[in-house]
Each structure stands twice: as structure tokens, then as C-alpha cells.
Amino acid sequence: MLYINKLTILKKLDMRELLRDCTFSVLPHQKIGIIGEEGNGKSTLLKAILDPKLIENYCNVQGFVQHENLVLGYLPQRMPEIWKDISVWEYFFKKDPNSDCDYQNINNCYSLLSTYQLNEEDLYDKKCGECSGGEQVKIQLIKLQMQNPDLYLLDEPTNDLDIDTLTFLEEFMSDEIQPFYLFLMMKHC
Known about the structure:
Number of domains: 2
Number of helices: 5
Oligomer: single chain
Radius of gyration: 17 Å
Helix content: 25-40%
CATH architecture of the largest domain: 3-Layer(aba) Sandwich
């Protein structure tokens, strides 16, 4: 279970309050969507849940976030720059760009590539930064699923996706046997 108690997030620059005394929990198999205008702190909230240290340079965080014993899977709005020069194939099997590849989940990877209609032969040498926006979302989703998280934190997961992948994502998110999630959508999609 994810439990948040009296979470307050203030932007350091202008002390704008993004969240005040927010308390909620997310139970297994529960899906929560957060809808709001751009710039109102949806992504910041997900980062605060993942690890408050990720936002400490620009926000003050007070309150309590508990997700003990949960494996968190985070999909950012954009692929982080540190992965742009790494091949897609390496991306799937590295924890960070400087680590060695761990091919433990290779069979799962092949299955997911097929599900997302990606050809593995095209990805051996292709750099993550050379992929289209939709391909980057797909490969990030594949990597997340390979990690088998207990809780998905999806920040605008539908950005740049084609209809087939949108349909897959919708089915994936509505499947009763999947873990629980928090996901964000823009108010005006």
C-alpha cells in the first residue's frame, strides 16, 4: 500500500503552494488518475512519492510518504537525457548508463517487444535519442514492465503514442490482475 499523510509541497522560488496537507492511500489493484492544468505540480507530486530528494532543489516537502516493500516503476514525461546515447537494447538491460547489462529478463523483453510491435533487430544499434517520441514511451514502458513494479507512477503515459499502443495501454491499465498505479493526464488532451 502507498500511504501519504499531510503532504505539503512548496516551490522554493516563489513559495507557491502546490499541495497542502494532502492525505490519501492507494490500495492494491486501485487506479488513481490525477488531472490538472500544466504547471500545477502533477509531475512534482509523482517525484515526491518516488523519492522526495528528486525535488529538493526546487521544492520544500513536508509530510509523510510510505511505500515500504513496494517496487516503484516511474515513467517520466520525457526520457532522461542520460539515456539518449545508449542503444535501446542496452537501455532495457542496464540500471544506469554506466552499468553492465543484465540479461536476466531477456525472454520477457522479447515478448514485450512483440506486444508493442517493435522489431528487436532494429533496436540493437539504434540510440534511444534517435527514437521518435512514441517509440521512447514504448521502450520506457517495456523497461518498466520488465522490472515488474508493484506500483506504476505514469506521468502522462499517453504522450506521443499511436492508436494501437494507446489501446494496449488502456487494456493494460484496466486489467484486474495488474498492480496498482498512479497516473497523470493533462486536463485538456
